[in-house]
Amino acid sequence: MQYSCKLSLSNELDTQKLAQKLAQHIAEGVIYLIGDLGAGKTTLSRYWLQSLGHKGAVKSPTYTLVEPYNIAGKDIFHFDLYRLNDPYELELMGIRDYLDVAHALFLFEWPSKGGEEIPQADHVIDIQKTDDEMVREVTISSISAELITALQDFNHSDC
Q: For this protein, what is any one GO molecular function term (predicted)?
């Protein structure tokens, strides 16, 4: 990753605003969402999908491993690898079929569990809890200078 930015999310509205900004600047590619249980990875994903135009519920793919979406003709795959015991399970579930979809957006929660079965990230979003239960510290690493520039005006950013 060539570019990075650190920012602070003070509340859920900040998470929604970040998702809107990400949706404006990332149309395709591989996104890694990193953070402990309860850090806000799925919440960010939900707001991101809604910002792209998804109507209705956004289910956590914790048990299904993947939830596919097609929003305005755009394929988006939201993976949650938390319950994965072995990266090879992804091969057995047919991950190649998903990864072969051209110009898709891939959101991977718990990417460390995917091993070599998942591609390298274009963007990494690391969400960390703080002592204040509501506040999250976020580090975004990206191949996109445009994205990092767009985040410079975000609350409490260091880009």
A: ATP binding
